[in-house]
Amino acid sequence: APDKMEEVLFGSEYNGLIKPGLLEKANGGFLFFDEVSDMPKGTQSKILRVLIDQKFKRINGSNDIKVDVRLICSSDRDLKNEIQLGNFREDLYHRISVFEIFIEPLSNRISDIPLLIKYFSKKIAQNYNIKSLDIDENDSYILNYNWKGNVRELRNLIERIAILQPENKEKTSSIIKESLKNDNF
Questions:
Q1: Is residue 41 within 8 Å of 54, Cβ to Cβ?
Q2: b/e per residue, 79-97, with b = 16+ CB within 10 A?
């Protein structure tokens, strides 16, 4: 909901209780907007105003909060196309697109998959406090799959394997085949 998003970003003041938002907490540093294209248009306007004026008011606040924040934004959509569709503000786009990095879809970067499997397997095993996961990084199902959800989808598959904790490689392979066959993500 836009109101909740704005409270998280700008903070709030209720009955003398001050809750700083992410913009205030990021003052002097960086703030990451994941999927900036999903931001409601009204919130886009407010973020643009912060970038221009370098200040804002908390929700229900009366004092300006000065900030010096750099934004890092991600999107799985083409923001220029979103502008044409009327979903994203062109002026905000020009403010945030100072330096663009385009990352090919995971299905075009098959050589990255084994490295990502190793990385996620280690991290997820640590998070779940379980023994390391035995996943074949060269599994043909994994390498030939069209990763519509990109790296997140691959991570979710590895987390599913960790949750199910198969006893051997054959059961792990079965989980991979079933998951990717059914697009369960």
A1: no
A2: beebbeeebbbeebbeebe
pLDDT value at 147 more than 80 = yes
Confidence of residue 1 (pLDDT cuts 50, 70, 90): low
Separation CA 103–CA 116 (nearest Å): 15
| For the chain, percent of residues with pLDDT exceeding 90 | 77
Q: How far apart are the first and last CA of the chain?
A: 24
Measuring CA to CA, which residue among 27, 31, 25, 24 is closest to residue 73? 31
Q: Which amino acid is at 36?
A: V
The residue with tokens 């996620």 is: 120
User: Among residues 86, 104, 83, 77, which one has the least CA distance to residue 95?
Assistant: 83
Tokens 């095993």: give the residue. 125
Mean of the per-residue pLDDT values of the chain: 92
- Rounded to 5 degrees, φ, ψ at 103 are -115, 125
Could you give the angle at which helices 150-164 and 113-128 cross, rounded to 10 degrees? 40
The answer to whether 154 and 120 are in contact (CB under 8 A) is yes
- 165: region left, alpha or beta (phi > 0 left; psi from -120 to 50 alpha): left
What pLDDT score was predicted for residue 118? Answer: 95
pTM, full prediction: 0.74
pLDDT at 184: 52
